[in-house]
Amino acid sequence: MKKLLFTISIILSTHYILSAQDRTDTLYYDRNWRTTNDKTFADYYRIAKYPQDSLQERKYIDFYITGEIQSKGQFISIDNKDDKYSIFDGLCESYYKNGKTAEIKNFRKGVLDGEYKSFNEDGLINYAGWFINGKKHGIHTKFINKDRYIQKEYSEGELTSDYYIMANSDGLMIKRKHIDDSIIWETPAINERQTKYIDGRAWQYYSKNGLTIALTSTNYRSYGKWHKLDIVITNNSLQSIRFDPSRNISAQSTDKKSITTYLDVWSCDRYIKKVNRVQLAFAILAGFSEGLASSNAGYSTSYTTSYYNGRTNNYGYRGYPSRNYTGSATHVSRTYNGYAAYQASVISQQRLTDFCNALNLEKENKRLEYIKENTIYPGETIAGYVLVKRINGENAKFVIDILGAKYSYDYFFGKIKKQKSKRGKTLKY
Predict the structure, then answer these.
(1) How deeply is 197 buried, as exposed, middle or buried, from its count of CB atoms within 10 A (0-12, 13-18, 19+)?
(2) Which residues, in sequence order, are CB contacts of 265 under 8 Å at separation 6+?
(3) How many domains does the chain have?
């Protein structure tokens, strides 16, 4: 029994001696992380452990002078005068007084190497990125506020482009130059144009500069020969876009002899002047039933019918005898309710909240009315059609210009054919 107790005491004494050989330092720092010998002027203090075993990690814990943990991690060496000369290694974390994480840093022999994150006192990320051997690498994200952030890309500490991306939590984005923060609008290359077929119709579209612009063209006859351009524009940028079809769209037609003729893009007001207002409304609304639901919203229609009967008292046209007659006349009146129109407009726009839905609802989109001048705000979509004067030609090119960025669309059209009817009248189609 005595032999067993002696063995246990030897083991405990040995452990105590080895533990006692680990060195623990306590250092006091001012607000600039310079050491101070007077605790009265200290803002932080550190407990640093130097294990006797060189293979064990050296660890430290920093505290606010009031006792809350300020940071913790591993180190290779600590400078006794200025902490900026200390060499840290591995994962190091710092905290606010409320206990929330302030920074997560990874070091390798004193330089940042690996993931880096900083947070605000609410726990939201301020900055996130990667470092390799002390240099920024890959995508670095800086959050301006809860909703908006910017992203820059680096390679071994150097920016990979002359611009950065500004975006928000809804996915809206825009490019800005590093040198002066001005917005960049780039003309897309033709190979960036994509095509989607819906009911046999080819929709050509681009996604560039935070905008998605889709266009399809068909031949159209109503008070003239036209190219009818159905257009969908989704603004996923952070910039409001002013769009006026008569100014922002250009068109040209090329014939078999490669002769190019510029085509006239008609505004809605100009087309209204060409066609009687009642006839225009009938032509548009009868052809586009969804437009009827939207543009007629707010109007209520009442019908007043009067009936009549009688008898002619003399011989009528070409000597036909007098006869009885009956008939009726219907008078139509319309009233307008602005709030109903507003509701219908909101409902119509809700169905066009993004480009994919807009294309999938192409049948509804094409029924919207003639596009007039609009301001397209971030996150909004507009859809409608524009008429371009048509002439005989093999192909047509339409260009939509948004702040200097030109989106080009090409369509092939055969020559307008003519044939004789049975009565000899010329038919065009």
Answers:
(1) exposed
(2) 245, 246, 249, 250, 251, 386, 387, 388, 389
(3) 2
Q: What are phi and psi of 247, to 5 degrees?
A: -105, -35
200 with 89, same domain?
no
Tokens encoding 383: 């859809």
- Domain limit, last residue, from 146, 177, 208: 177
The most confident of the ranges 71-85, 223-237, 318-332 is 71-85
Together in a domain, 197 and 285: yes
Same domain, 121 and 257: no
pLDDT digits (tens, 9 = 90+) for 362-411: 433 334 488 989 999 998 999 999 999 988 777 899 999 999 999 999 98
Q: Are residues 252 and 342 in the same domain?
A: yes
For residues 369 and 233, membership in a common domain is answered with: yes
Give residue 295's domain range.
190-422
Those residues with Cβ within 8 angstroms of residue 203's Cβ, 6 or more apart along the chain or in another chain: 195, 196, 197, 214, 215, 216, 359, 362
Assess whether 332 and 297 both reside in one domain: yes
Same domain, 98 and 229: no
pLDDT digits (tens, 9 = 90+) for 221-264: 877 889 999 999 999 888 999 999 999 999 999 888 888 899 99
In a domain? residue 40 = yes
273 and 345 part of one domain: yes
Domain final residue pick, 132, 147, 177: 177
User: Cα 98–103–109 angle (5° rounding)?
Assistant: 140
